[in-house]
Design goal:
The protein is an alpha+beta fold. Helices cover about 55% and strands about 15% of the residues. A four-stranded antiparallel β-sheet has the order 4-3-6-5. Helix 3 packs across helix 6 (about 210-235), helix 4 (about 155-170) packs across helix 5 and helix 4 crosses helix 6.
């Protein structure tokens, strides 16, 4: 074989300086493009992340009101508004169903039809004011929490669970069975199994558009309100200024003067009251109103009769004009610290929370900042869409 001393030629020619420079320039441009694209992707991701954080974290936590520095969250507000709307629409549907079942041609149904229509009108009005009403309710709830913490009151998760299950059992309780218990002799209802109750609960949450967590917070707020109401009711004074009052009511001054003359001439107050008084409440009892407290007589007899009962001399018969009627008032006895009548005490206890709200909301140490934009209220998800 013949020997070859020639070297193989290289497959690639050597690059010129111009080609090398051009390659470096292209490489730099590619790096800049990739860096720019990466930066753009990061910006897009940051914008999306910011939007997600705003919608999921910041927006729900933003306040609709601030009460003494404590924020009322927008998500809690929207959940309570949804719950209130759901209840009102449910009541409206029930009333409308009852109204449809009444025959409007039956005169015996006219009162009930009118009553249902008034109730429906009021519920529709309540729906219109619900956004503002719920805001004020949540401001009250924050004041309630302050009072509860001050008094050392607590609401536990177990209490919330018990309340939910108890309300469910009451709502779905079946009519009593025909069976009679041997010991009590009364119908015994068949209890609904817990598993079925939980299924009903989940369906109710779905219909209301609420999560379990959101609904439990609503129930919890209700329990706080209940406990503070009970606390305030227990603090209502049970004694106060009371008077034992006898009263005769007439339509004219002449009738009152004639009745007073009979009493002055020795006839018994009770006998005259039974014969003369036009007050159907007390006439049968000889005009005896029993023990009454301050402000108890104003509604029925007027301010002048009320004032006389707590200012007239004991034992005397005083003629007073109150409104368009005339009264003979005799104060049998008066006590500065006597026991309040049960009806008065019960009313004051029932009004304890609302009276406390009126005081706290106007107190100088309470600072309330309302931040809700009523133009951005969520639409009512339960409202029937308007027709074309």
């Amino acid at each position: 074989m013949a020997k070859s001393s020639k070297k193989k030629k290289t497959t690639s020619a050597k690059q010129t300086k111009k080609q090398v420079a051009l390659g470096r320039k292209t490489s730099r441009q590619n790096r800049i493009i990739w860096i720019s694209m990466a930066a753009l992707v990061l910006v897009i991701v940051a914008v999306l992340a910011a939007g997600i954080i705003t919608e999921i974290v910041l927006k729900p936590a933003s306040p609709v009101a601030i009460v003494n520095g404590a924020k009322v969250r927008v998500d809690d507000y929207e959940n309570l508004l949804t719950y209130r709307r759901s209840n009102q629409h449910s009541t409206i549907r029930s009333l409308e169903s009852s109204l449809r079942d009444l025959n409007p041609d039956d005169e015996g149904n006219q009162f009930l039809i009118s009553f249902y229509e008034q109730q429906l009108s009021q519920l529709q009005a309540n729906l219109n004011t619900a956004p503002q009403d719920v805001l004020e309710e949540m401001i009250e709830d924050q004041l309630i929490r302050e009072k509860a913490e001050e008094a050392g009151l607590t609401v536990t998760a177990a209490e919330v669970e018990q309340t939910i299950m108890s309300d469910l059992r009451q709502a779905v309780a079946p009519p009593p069975q025909a069976a009679i218990t041997e010991t009590q002799g009364i119908p015994t209802p068949t209890p609904v199994p817990d598993a079925q109750l939980k299924e009903i609960y989940q369906n109710a949450l779905q219909n209301m558009g609420l999560t379990d967590k959101a609904f439990r917070k609503i129930v919890e707020r209700g329990l706080w309100r209940q406990k503070v109401q009970e606390l305030l009711a227990s603090q209502v004074p049970t004694t106060g200024l009371v008077a034992h009052v006898l009263l005769i009511q007439t339509d004219t001054k002449e009738e009152a003067l004639a009745a007073q003359e009979r009493i002055d001439n020795g006839e018994g107050f009770a006998i005259v009251a039974q014969e003369v008084s036009t007050d159907t409440v007390s006439a049968a009892d000889g005009g005896d109103l029993g023990w009454v407290a301050k402000d108890q007589l104003v509604y029925r007899y007027g301010q002048e009769a009320e004032d006389t009962a707590f200012s007239a001399e004991i034992g005397t018969v005083t003629l007073v004009e109150s409104g368009d009627r005339y009264f003979l008032v005799r104060v049998v006895e008066r006590d500065e610290s006597g026991p309040l009548p049960e009806s008065v005490l019960g009313q004051q206890q029932a009004n304890a929370l609302s009276d406390w709200f009126a005081q706290r909301l106007s107190a100088p140490d309470v600072e309330i900042e309302r931040l809700l934009d009523l133009d951005n209220i969520p639409s009512d998800p339960f409202a029937t869409p308007a027709g074309p």
